[in-house]
Amino acid sequence: MKGSIVITGASRGIGAVTAIKAAEAGYEVCVNYHSNRAAADSVVAAIEAKGGKAIAVQGDVAVEADILRMFETVDSQLAPLSALVNNAGILETHDRVENITFDRLQRVMTTNITGSFLCAREAVRRLSTAHGGQGGGIVNISSAASRLGSPNEYVDYAASKGAIDSFTIGLAKEVATEGIRVNAVRPGVVYTEIHALGGEPGRVDRVKDAVPMQRGGQPEEIANTVLWLLSDQASYITGSLLDVSGGR
Q1: Residue 81 is part of which domain span?
Q2: Contact status, residue 15 vs residue 87, Cβ threshold 8 Å
Q3: Using one digit for the tens of pLDDT, what is the confidence trace for 86-116?
């Protein structure tokens, strides 16, 4: 048994698929969700149907108290923590920088950056051998947008993911001698519901021809990469930013 894993934003998309695959790999799973309890419960049910153990825990990663409560719930209800996937993230409707409001920036940056920092902080406090932990892994979900910039769509989202790249590298070096490996996966355009939040549910089909492989990615392809990075097969990999983007 591999201990427990916290996956933020795990009620849908990449997070949901990662949760199911993590359970198949032997983890007890915390399925974190923001508001859609029914969707989170369905992920838990899918895990339990295959003999795994999972709990759904509501929590907004933009709220520190919610993060603390989530990790305390894992401490009391699941095996000792051994992994974290910082998957929760938001974007807003397509717009140019000249039109982006202060409130929008606060929402995007607090969820995408601050939430990942605070979740990682709580994970390190439990995983680090310097704190009596057994070590473990952290995978941050970044985006190819951090390299591409997402002009005329969501430069704020791209910038938040650029911060995640820097955070991944810095934290990896900070805890490298404490039994913790920290890496990031940078998906390209993937068939998930997040594009609807940007106001264009069909965005993947619109832009896929710009991808060298001429197709969008599937959530399973991202989840498989996350689980590989957390596995012993990636034991000498830390501080890496792994593009899973069809060559773009």
Answers
A1: 4-244
A2: yes
A3: 999 999 999 999 999 999 999 999 999 999 9
The strand pairing partners of 30, in sequence order, are 6, 55
Q: Cβ–Cβ contacts within 10 Å for residue 33, how many?
A: 26
Number of domains in the chain: 1
φ, ψ at 38 (rounded to 5°):
-60, -40
Q: Of the listed 27, 157, 191, 236, which one is catalytic?
A: 157
Query: Does the active-site annotation cover 236?
Result: no
The radius of gyration of the chain's CA atoms, rounded to the nearest angstrom, is 17
Distance CA 164, CA 141 (A): 8
What's the CATH number where 65 sits?
3.40.50.720
End-to-end CA distance of the chain: 37
Give the HSE-up count for residue 164: Cα atoms under 13 Å, Cβ half-sphere: 40
**What pLDDT score was predicted for residue 197?**
67
CA 170 to chain centre: 17
Asked if residue 226 lies in contact with residue 182, where contact means CB atoms within 8 angstroms, the answer is no
Q: At what angle do helices 155-174 and 115-127 cross, to 10 degrees?
A: 20
User: Does residue 33 have a pLDDT over 90?
Assistant: yes
Q: pLDDT grade, residue 201 (50/70/90)?
A: confident
Q: Following CA atoms 16, 22, 26, 27 in sequence, which dihedral angle do they give, to the nearest 10 degrees?
A: -80
Amino acid at 55: I
26, two tokens = 């032997």
- Angle, vertex CA 245, rays to CA 240 and CA 247, nearest 5: 100
> Tokens 């201990």 belong to which residue?
3
Token pair, residue 157, equals: 């989202």
